[in-house]
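Most newcomers find our protein records easier to grasp once they have seen one. Read left to right, the backbone structure tokens trace the chain's path through space. Once this layout is familiar, the rest of the handout is easier to follow. The record below serves as our worked example for the rest of this section:


***
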Amino acid sequence: MKELSNTLIPERLKAAREHLNISKAEAARRIGLTAASYVRYEAGDRSPSPQVLMSIAEKLETSVAYLSGETNDISSDIVSIHKDSDPLLFELIKNTQNADEATLQRLITYYQQLTKSV
């Protein structure tokens, strides 16, 4: 299995931010950084730790693989579901984490039927 480099490519960070149509200040706020820290990452003057890079990817709705140049797919590879904002979805996921294969297949089939009519 190929290991990701975890090295931020500043142009990818800028592209991810622009993909969301947000300012540098808004990106910094979402990530929990000062604006100055964020600007240094986007300028390439500073490299984030692997943990910060993961947080950046999540908050900018992309992936570490995209930010590090491992893929050209800008889409996110992680979905965060918070109990406070999505309690029903959170419970559904929590309760199905240890479900048997037959139950998961029934849920997937039900989901597919629901999304066909949308």
Remarks:
- DSSP finds seven helices and no strands in the chain.
- The chain has two domains: 10-67, 87-116.
- The first helix runs from residue 10 to 19.
- The mean pLDDT is 90.
